[in-house]
From TrEMBL:
<feature type="binding site">
    <location>
        <position position="99"/>
    </location>
    <ligand>
        <name>phosphoenolpyruvate</name>
    </ligand>
</feature>
<feature type="binding site">
    <location>
        <position position="174"/>
    </location>
    <ligand>
        <name>phosphoenolpyruvate</name>
    </ligand>
</feature>
<comment type="similarity">
    <text>Belongs to the EPSP synthase family.</text>
</comment>
<keyword id="KW-0057">Aromatic amino acid biosynthesis</keyword>
<keyword id="KW-0028">Amino-acid biosynthesis</keyword>
<feature type="binding site">
    <location>
        <position position="172"/>
    </location>
    <ligand>
        <name>3-phosphoshikimate</name>
    </ligand>
</feature>
<dbReference type="GO" id="GO:0005737">
    <property type="term" value="C:cytoplasm"/>
</dbReference>
<comment type="subunit">
    <text>Monomer.</text>
</comment>
<feature type="binding site">
    <location>
        <position position="127"/>
    </location>
    <ligand>
        <name>phosphoenolpyruvate</name>
    </ligand>
</feature>
<keyword id="KW-0963">Cytoplasm</keyword>
<dbReference type="InterPro" id="IPR023193">
    <property type="entry name" value="EPSP_synthase_CS"/>
</dbReference>
<feature type="binding site">
    <location>
        <position position="31"/>
    </location>
    <ligand>
        <name>3-phosphoshikimate</name>
    </ligand>
</feature>
<feature type="binding site">
    <location>
        <position position="174"/>
    </location>
    <ligand>
        <name>3-phosphoshikimate</name>
    </ligand>
</feature>
<dbReference type="GO" id="GO:0003866">
    <property type="term" value="F:3-phosphoshikimate 1-carboxyvinyltransferase activity"/>
</dbReference>
<dbReference type="Pfam" id="PF00275">
    <property type="entry name" value="EPSP_synthase"/>
</dbReference>
<feature type="binding site">
    <location>
        <position position="351"/>
    </location>
    <ligand>
        <name>phosphoenolpyruvate</name>
    </ligand>
</feature>
<dbReference type="InterPro" id="IPR006264">
    <property type="entry name" value="EPSP_synthase"/>
</dbReference>
Amino acid sequence: MSDSRIDFLVQPGGALVGRLRVPGDKSISHRSVMLGALAEGRTAAEGLLEGEDVLRTVNAFRAMGVRVDGPRAGHVEIEGVGLHGLKAPAAPLDMGNSGTAMRLMAGILAGQAFDSELVGDPSLSKRPMKRVAEPLNRMGAEIRTEEGGRPPLRISGGRALSAIRYALPVPSAQVKSALLLAGLYAKGETAVTEPAPTRDHTERMLRGFGYAVEVSGSTVRLSGGGRLKACRIDVPADISSAAFFLVGASIAPGADIVLEHVGMNPTRVGVLTILGLMGADIGIENARESGGEPVADLRVRASRLRGIRIPPEQVPLAIDEFPALLVAAACAEGETVLSGAEELRVKESDRIAATAAGLRALGIDARETPDGMIVRGGGAFRSGTVESLGDHRIAMAFAMAGLRSQGPITIRDCKNVDTSFPGFVELARRAGLGITIRGGR
Ligand SMILES: O=C(O)C1=C[C@@H](OP(=O)(O)O)[C@@H](O)[C@H](O)C1
Ligand SMILES: C=C(OP(=O)(O)O)C(=O)O
């Protein structure tokens, strides 16, 4: 987590070939550590993501007295302290770049007997937190934000929480999860209704830890006062990390890769649906169930993509994949229209603005709209420099553009790739991308 900047330099051409496994799912990894810490007994997980975001979650629990062995080579063991066994941290808990860590931790900390504070890096410090603070305060928590609902979050302990029924104003698995986690500490039944399906890893994993969770239609319910029992977890490869290779192999002439053990949770496969509509050639092999989550190997071969109107209902199911999908759109014949995706403006960067600017820097006709983008594709990228704005997904998406570029591409400020995908450069290079790291500015 050094301050030195790095850039990526990507040479034009190449193809992606071979078999590879991308690192563990970030959403599932955060939740494994959180529920493992709050459970009774020793939880063991395999395939955990050792990205900086997840390490922030690990360190936060260590600072609250939880023993965590590892992670090493994806293996971690957590000595759970039970729902009421956390200790007051001596200093603010630093969630780094991670929105998931900050919002889910807010739900957990709202139910503790001690005061706490959640802080983040400059990117996280700009992101909206009222979306969790407001409903948690309605449950009886006392969470104060900075001006404009931004971090830090100052959480007063010792409040008795009562369950609420809450309709999420925006589709957000992070807000849903924060409320469910606070609901473990609340008197009565917490009910969260979503306007559209979002990732359901919290619901699945709570059940894996022996906690009763009821799902009917778009509403999730649980009652406070139960216990979590330690379990074993197998974390699948992250489909959001696989997405870069799904796009890269689709746009690179001659590409043929297999991505192994990819998480195929139905609330996460929007990227496959959207690429499928664009004409991508993705085969699903060896579909199986592993530790409560569906997984499969994905075989991807180069294909001619066509522009589409992205169905708005797919947006929450592919929410982190749009930087990569829009790079694919730039290589597709005709126009691609993304709408209903205003949430992209409040991620690690404004991903609509950052992706449109990056595409234009590489000679592509990309027009921003308030809630999406219109991209005219079909040609190749030209040589240029893309500002990632410190956003890991912007950096990795534009690295793949090199596969269809007429000249080298420089991508600036890429060190945050380590938040979600440590080893990206090595893995991409081994698969055939001409990518190197430059000590930046
Ligand atoms: O719950 C999660 O693990 C996540 C939910 C999504 O955020 P929102 O809930 O803000 O949409 C996603 O963008 C993020 O990368 C991970
Ligand atoms: C939005 C993301 O993560 P987070 O909200 O956890 O920072 C992401 O990984 O793309």
